[in-house]
Amino acid sequence: MVTRVFCQTVLHTVSARPLRSAILRLIPRTALLPWLSSRAVSVSEWPLLSSPPRDYSLPNPSWSTEMRRLYEYYDSLCEKEMEGGEKKPGGWGRLPSYNRTLKYAAGGKCLSKLLKEKARLFTRNTEEQGAAFEYVVFMNKSEKRCVCIFQAGHLLEGPPGNVHGGAIATIIDTSLGTLAGYLSGIVMTANLNINYCSPIPLGSVVLIDSVLDKVEGRKTFVSCQVTSSDGSKLHTEATGLFISINVGHLFGG
Ligand SMILES: CCCCCCCC/C=C\CCCCCCCC(=O)SCCNC(=O)CCNC(=O)[C@H](O)C(C)(C)COP(=O)(O)OP(=O)(O)OC[C@H]1O[C@@H](n2cnc3c(N)ncnc32)[C@H](O)[C@@H]1OP(=O)(O)O
To answer: To test the ligand 1 pocket, which listed residue (9, 111, 215, 243) has its Cβ within 8 A of the most ligand atoms?
Structure first.
């Protein structure tokens, strides 16, 4: 049962294939085989869990008109299942986002001894909608690129009226880390290099466009530009180096 719930949640919550495989490697192969061979798991199986975790990357009432417009634009480019089961090709996919990804990926059971009860993903640690990081990531597999739509809330103030540089670094780390993790499995940030070009007004919506530069062994090099939502103003640019790790490294191994 635990294995079943584990597989089901991994397959639903972690859509990046290398990352999903890495998490699935956490438990014995023999226990996984029955599930991996019956790969088709549908959303209707969620009721096996007490309640599905909240997906923070879906629209909520705090999203501005601009945030919604951009969400709807990228959502319209996503692969969609049409009537008759055919897939409308799009190239893009929206990544769901949870405040305790590793816990949910493990069905709340397998890793519960290792995970701190009060720990929450930094960017999803407030229930007050719109107060801090509101964002959604759309991934384009074939282009090895992702776009993060980010609306900065009032708790992220640095210079008066503008977003704190550390908050900008956080959303850049998140975007680049999501892309690197999607392409290379479980990774950690080894280096971030950021040029702050123009301030980001608090409450505004910006786009973080991230691309893969190269992969060399365990090293995944990525870069991004943060621009105003119409692309006319460059706010920030950054490069990042992410190193592939074994999951044991996260727990001091
Ligand atoms: C994260 C897992 C999640 C799992 C579930 C995911 C669900 C997704 C959910 C939500 C997505 C949100 C996404 C958020 C993303 C945020 C990510 C972070 O913020 S991570 C926190 C900050 N980073 C650290 O705390 C690292 C601390 N550093 C280390 O632990 C080690 O230094 C590490 C792992 C980076 C490398 O250590 P070594 O011992 O494994 O490897 P060595 O041999 O040192 O390096 C390998 C190669 O990389 C080069 N290298 C290492 N660090 C370098 C550096 N700073 N600059 C240049 N090269 C470097 C080395 O020279 C070496 O290169 P040569 O193979 O010899 O060519």
So the answer is: 243
* Ligand 1 atom 51 nearest Cα: 190
Name, in order, each residue with C-beta under 8 angstroms of 35's C-beta and a sequence gap of 6 or more. Answer: 3, 4, 7, 8
Q: Residue 183: inside a domain, yes or no?
A: yes
The reported pLDDT for the residue numbered 253 is 75
* Residue 4 domain flag: no
106 domain-assigned? yes
Handedness of CA 206, 193, 142, 32 (dihedral sign): negative
Q: Would residue 25 count as lying in a domain?
A: no
Among 75, 173, 209, 230, the one annotated catalytic: 173
Supply the CATH number for residue 200's domain. 3.10.129.10
- Residues of the chain with pLDDT > 90: what percent? 62
pTM here is 0.84
Q: What is the rounded CA–CA span in Å between residue 149 and residue 57?
A: 10
Per the structure, the count of domains in the chain is: 1
46 pLDDT band (50/70/90 cuts)? very low
Q: What's the domain range around 69?
A: 55-251
Tell me the three state secondary structure of residue 20.
helix
The complex scores an ipTM of 0.95
Q: Is the CB of 243 under 6 A from ligand 1?
A: yes
